[in-house]
Amino acid sequence: MKKTLLFLLTLVSSLSIAYAQQREISGRVTASDDGSGLPGVSVVVKGTTIGTSTDADGRYNLRVEENSVLVFSFLGYLPKEVPVSGQTTMNVVLAPDAKQLGEVVVTALGIERSERSLGYSTQEVKGENLTFTKEQNVLGSLAGKVAGVQVAGSSGASMGGTQKIQIRGVNSVTGGGQPLVVIDGTPISNANFAGRNGADYGNLAQDINPEDIESVNVLKGPTASALYGIRGQYGVIMITTKKGSKGPKKVVVQLNSAFSLEKVGNLMPMQNLYGGGSTQTFRTLANGQKYVDGTDESWGPKMDGTNVRHMHSFYPQDPMYGQLEPFVAHPDNIRDFFETGFNLNNGVSVAGGNENSTFRLSYNNTYIEGVEPNTWLKRNNLGVSASLDLSKKVSVSTNFNYANNNGQRPSQGYYEGSRNFTQWFQRNLDMKRLKNYKYSDGTFYHWNTNRPTAEGVITDPEPVDWNNPYFEAYENINSDNRERFFGDVGLTYQVLPELKLSGFVRSDMFTQNIEHKEAAGGRYEDGYSVAKYQNREMNYEFLAQYTKDLNDFSFNVNLGANLYDRHYTFLSQATAGGLSSPGFYNIGASRERPTSGREDYPSYLLRKKLQSVYGMATIGYKDTYFIDFSVRRDHSSTLSDPYYYPSVSGSFVFSELLNWKPLSFGKLRASYAQAGNDVAVYATSLNYEVGGLYGNESGTTNTSYVPDVLNNPDIKPSFATSYELGVDLKFFNGRLGADFTYYQQRNRDDVIALNVSGASGYTSAYVNAGLMVNRGIEVALTGTPLQTGKFSWDVAFNLARNRGTVKELYPGLDSRLIESNSYSGVSMYLYSTVGQPFGTIVGQAYQRDEATGKVLLGSNNQPLYTTATHNFGTVLPDATGGFQNTFRFGQFDLGAMIDYQLGGQFFSWSRMLAVKAGLAPETAAINENGKNVRDPLAEGGGVKVNGIYGPGVKINGVDVSGQEFNGFVDAKTYYRTTIGTRVYEEWLYDASYIRLREVRLGYTLSRTALGKLPFERVGIAFIARNPAMIWQKAPDGLNPAELATGASSFSWLETGGLNTVRSYGVNLNITF
Amino acid sequence: MKRIYLFLVVCLALSGCEFDEDININPNKPSQASGGQLLANAMLSLPGLSSSPQGEFMAQYLSETQFPGGSLYPEGATSFYGLYSDPLMNLEEVIKADDLDAKEGPVANQKAVAKVLKAYYFWNITDRWGDVPFSQALTGLNNFSPAYDTQESIYNSLFVLLDSANQGFVAGDIANDIIYGGKVDKWKKLGNTIRLLMALRLSEVNATKGKEEFNKALAAGVMTSNEDNFTFKHLGVVANENYWYSQVGRQKRLWWALSETLVNTMKPTSDPRLAVYADPNEKGEYVGLKFGKLEGGAPAEYAMLGSDIWKQDAPVYLVTYAQVLFAKAEAAKRGWITGSDVEAKTNYEEAIKQSLKQWTGSDAGAGAFLQQPTIAYNPATALEQIGTQRYIHLFMHGYEAWAEWRRTGFPANLIMPSDKAIPTRLMYPAQEAANNTANYKAALQRLGGTDGLYGKVWWDKN
Fold this sequence. Notes:
The complex is a heterodimer of chains A (1072) and B (462).
Chain A: H1 2-18, E1 25-31, E2 42-45, E3 51-53, E4 59-62, E5 69-73, E6 80-83, E7 92-94, E8 104-106, E9 112-114, E10 122-126, H2 127-130, E11 149-152, E12 164-167, E13 180-183, E14 186-188, E15 198-199, E16 213-219, H3 222-225, E17 236-241, E18 252-264, E19 283-284, E20 290-291, E21 307-309, E22 324-326, H4 333-337, E23 341-354, E24 357-369, E25 376-389, E26 394-408, E27 411-412, H5 431-435, H6 469-474, E28 478-496, E29 499-518, E30 527-550, E31 553-579, E32 590-595, E33 603-621, E34 625-636, E35 643-652, H7 655-658, E36 663-677, E37 689-696, E38 699-705, E39 709-710, E40 718-731, E41 736-755, E42 764-787, E43 791-808, E44 815-823, E45 826-833, E46 840-843, E47 855-857, E48 870-874, E49 877-889, E50 892-903, E51 905-908, H8 909-916, E52 943-949, E53 954-955, E54 958-959, E55 964-969, H9 971-982, E56 988-990, E57 993-1005, H10 1007-1010, E58 1017-1032, E59 1053-1054, E60 1061-1071
Parallel strand pairs in A: 1-7, 13-17, 39-42, 47-52, 51-59
Antiparallel strand pairs in A: 1-4, 2-3, 2-5, 5-6, 8-9, 10-16, 11-12, 13-14, 15-27, 16-17, 18-23, 18-60, 19-20, 21-22, 23-24, 24-25, 25-26, 26-28, 28-29, 29-30, 30-31, 31-32, 31-33, 33-34, 34-35, 35-36, 36-40, 37-38, 40-41, 41-42, 42-43, 43-49, 44-45, 45-46, 46-48, 49-50, 50-57, 51-56, 52-55, 53-54, ...
Helix pairs in contact in A: 8-9
Chain B: H1 2-14, H2 35-44, H3 53-58, E1 62-64, H4 81-96, H5 107-129, E2 132-133, E3 148-149, H6 151-168, H7 184-200, H8 207-220, E4 230-232, H9 243-250, E5 256-258, H10 260-266, H11 274-277, E6 278-279, E7 304-305, H12 307-310, E8 316-319, H13 321-334, H14 340-360, H15 366-371, H16 382-393, H17 398-408, H18 432-435, H19 437-446
């Protein structure tokens, strides 16, 4: 690493020395309001076309004649004319044009434009706003900060887990559609290798070092992203990184160090009265000793201190072998499992430049020890960006980012890891005891084995369902690592002051390795699986930009071409039938022919190309009226024909005409666009599948089969058409700002694997189908309610409401299954249904009396339930948004970020099982008779049930239908057999929440306070990530904000997500 | 760099360049599949027709020791999609193919085997669900929502299909045959045996047709020994292991005891098969667990599913010679074939002998067993005796035993768990309501409007 750094430093300094200087005028253009350098200011010799524009730091240089006059002009500022008069350095200060308030924003393809000229909504988030509590995943740090951008996250326990973004609702009848992530113009992969179960490796955009980010612009709809064509249908997250700045001896070194402690929070409440077992009476051995059943539920005897044989007492290797110990609750057994983790993040950046070059280098190291035992993540990020003017007109630039990740992560879901604590567990288990999971002879202690014989012998010491959680943590290891490179090399040629040509070669590559070790002595046969994924995406790009002002008109024309080339392969293998020797984790150890492991194929190759040309023109009149046209032509190698994607938009800065003082800026905007999506590679080719093998000593028979999914050679790309209307207002010189947007987006002809009747011979077939209409409003308010000398208070609030309706599916088809979930033979489905919002949950509900709404009961007084046909409505929220407050008082700053979601729903498997397995508090609650619900009915126990006997229900031969029952039923039958298994209505929860996501209290030592110390600035801050859920509708122990998994692009299913993690720490920031 | 510019400029000018021709050829999947490989794949799905807790519960062979659920006959859909999209679609591909490779054996035999298997799968499907898509099924893109055919028409079509298979066989073995090692004479006998057993299924609904088909099948040549049995031989490797091994052996699920009904039928006659079907309890005794008991029972106290049955490479018996003999015994008793009671007795006794041989490897105990008063052939109760012995023989092929129970009412001692009657059909896949709405509704109309476990299939007149 050090060598690389040295090399790059040497390279850049030698380049700047080698470059021959020419005598010319140079200077810096700054803004009068804050003294910052103004980039992109046009500097033109009056009366000529000779000129240049300022760099990112406001600096320029230009060869001119002695007596010329320079005109400095920049959008939003009053122009200035300055005579040269023999000066060699001309620093110019521009004053903002109060009437022309409006910022320069980065738009599609990295083109910087004045905000006033944009006919669509775009929202920028500054880098410091993303890192103020040192969130590691850039997508996660966008949560709540951009109107209409919903971030579904996951628990911090996976250390870099999945963060999913949805812009303006779900825009595909399939539920798919993730935005394109673009960094400095380079589209990068945001793939996810995780599923619902196992380790969550997270989304790949997390390889961006958040400290490198200057700003993030979210292009929300097809209008904004029309220039990305096929890849921009679901919006674009545009990330711009920090750069060095030109100028003599301007070197800025920053050190950044953060340390935080990570602790679990929001543990699910549990009952502590009854322990492991299926009945309340202890089982006994032949010698009369009572023992704890090794079953995985807590419907057992009261934990009253009775001396019993615990499971470990049946292991002859155990010090407590054969002995009795009290049967008592361990109320904190779940908490005891978790450790206090930490997150140590250290970074350094060096930025600078000289007259003709800029340079920035950054390095960041992250080390996390997770809250789950034996889990950790190490990450290194190295970033270099540099630019060099080869001549007055030609410059080269590069961005280079390297990241590596090494992780050992916990499993989530079912049957792996520790998530069964809330699903199937015993409340009497002592975590300290479980921790000694390995005996000195190398054998393991498990709590969930089949029962001992009457003589007290466990014939099979391996568990039935659940491994000892420490066996999972220390023996069954998930490890993953990824090497990532992305970046670009560019050449820019300023042919004329108005005309710039540029070319870029962009690349994103990664190698991802994932392996899993399954140790001998647990529930599963020992084994090893390994997968290696390699991806290379190249983009070759050409762009011509022409800018010209003519009287009151301004013209901006861009023409470009792009060639995209992707090459992706993987190899995936897993041992079968066990390992040849325990602990030899290698495919070569496979006892039987290895399988393709975590993938469907042992080896895979994907090749794809995309040829694009595009053009865009903006015409402005009097800097007040603007109109934009763009068109892109994409020809994908997956399709036989090319397709065109047009857009048109316009804006009108009406404040120019109003001249009403409080309104500093007012703009109306409108746009229309079409964007598309692609067809998956090979989706048009017809193939067979490789089937299972049948092999014995006399040979192996290979088999093939007709695929279950029918490909379609006539498939077309899908189209999204969107309209957008909005108004942007700024009052009192920007003290108060308000943006309103209304949009409608129609996504048509999605490429979907249409579920068809299996009797057709296929379970699904690719077709173009569907029309999904999303309408929504977005409101973003910013304000500075207070601003006195030392004190300021800034507020940002946003709210988005989206209503999506599935308008059409396929002729004759009303519903399409998107996902389903089954447990214990009961299924729940998520459908797209015509005429309804996207994502309707269909499952088993209570049967209810139509007149009274009361639950119908059967002859055993237990509730009756419907088949899996009850429609519970959409999973999507009514509204999402965020609320951010920043206070500054002298050297102190206090920031708090809140994000929220209103409405939506999710199904919680963990809650259902906590009840089914007798772990949840209500399964051992006190009823209105003052008795425990588990007490016998005859003694006043039982769960209170009020309902009406269903049609045809007979008790002792007498028809009781329609009669009311108001009484008690057996708790185990009620919770375990009835509602915990069959009534999914009980386990659906409203996903509304208001979360305090980030808090920071900082103090900045100023230059003067630092005295002789060599620091420019020192900041220290206390930071907290995810410190509190302010309000949620779902019960404690669930986290509606952390439902994302790699498996699904939206969050409706909780099947054992990792526990919530709260982190608190300190951040030190030093600038030299 | 310059070349790229040049390329891009040229592309821009010509608005489109050609891609490499092979870029869309999927290198990850085969573009060809041989008839033999498709047939072999269809055979891999065969154990699923038998190895299913649901089938065992329908026939009340097994009781649940823990978590009683399926044995309480809960309402709920069972999907037939996998049977269509996996084995049947492969078979259809072979039947329709015009490019089968004779290197894998005579093309006619590949097709005839595919027809026999297709008939066998559809027979299972229609017996479980009743009316199902048949004539419009398996046409892919041509019809994504195939209509449901009546069971009667499916039976008629399958008789024709089996007849055509029988006619189609020529001399010459086929390759990739994981059932009979390529011996087509055995496939031919299997096809006719299926036809024989299907014909018997019509005893209550259309005896005339049943008798006719039965005799045609006999004439065409049915199984003549246990060597002809249609058996899926599991192997001692993960990829080809017995379903019950994955449950009991691999997952340590001591969930299944033999039902009290079955044990109490077999124990009094010292049935030699009991020791194979079950492992004794901790005390060395064979104690059956009452079927559908809500609280289950401790595995140590009951006769659990036998380790011979759940071992990794235990075979699955799908169609057996003993079934042929039971069928002939019944046919003789019914007068479908000649010989009446004498013929019935001979076949009945031979059936039991062959069953003992199949399950225990020997018929040495058969003589004594056949002397048992309840076992010895009794013309007065012959149909019940045949039905009960066939039930015992069909152990672990629950769906077939359940079908025979629905047809004949034997064995007569099955019970109603928690007052719930034994289902008479399976419910359609829930997705059909969305995927194939009109046809699904039409099929439901024939069931009286709603899907449920208690509608009766066409031949079920009992």
